[in-house]
Structures are given as C-alpha cells and as structure tokens.
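Lab notebook, bench 4. Still working through the backlog of constructs that have no structural model yet. Next entry is a single chain of 100 residues. Request: give me the structure tokens for it.
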Amino acid sequence: MKITITHRRLTLTDEVKERIEQRVGVALGRFGDRIKQVSVKFTNGEINGNAPEHKCVIEIELNKKLKVEAADRDVLSAMDLALEHATRKIDHTLAKESGR
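Model written out:
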C-alpha cells in the first residue's frame, strides 16, 4: 500500500509525517492487499476567526476511489476521525462487492 501525504497552509515535521504513515498503516493494514494507494491531504483554515481547524481528506484507491474527510483543531485528531470514516466505508464497499 503506497501512502502519500500532502499539506497546504500548515507545516508537518518529519516526525509527524512518520506518525501519520504509521497510523494509516495500522488502521488500513487489514485491507492492504486490496488497497492500491492512499492519499492523505491536510489543509488549515479558521473557524470563525478562532483557533485553526485542520481538515484531513483521505482518498483510497481500491477497485474504485473512496474519499472521506474530517476536521478538528488538532491535525492528528482530524486524521484519526477520517481514518474511522475510511475503515467503515471500506468495510461497506467490500461487503457490497462480495454480496454480503
């Protein structure tokens, strides 16, 4: 499973990028043989002029492309939420394909 990480309007240290790759690998590892590529994209915005909101978009390439997104004030929390959505969506998609 190939994992790419991109970010806009925020800085991710190498340590954070390694943690992201590790978390994505653990969360999606059980689907590894079916997943061709995972793209994790982060952007930074503001919530009504308050503290920054970090948005995480995860695109997963199976037989078709799946896309999930989540936002939180913390980068890793936003990613964790998106990964939760992603695992449910992959489970649903694979179950549907297998006729369950």
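Notes after review: The mean pLDDT is 90. The first strand starts at residue 2 and ends at 8. Flag for follow-up if needed.
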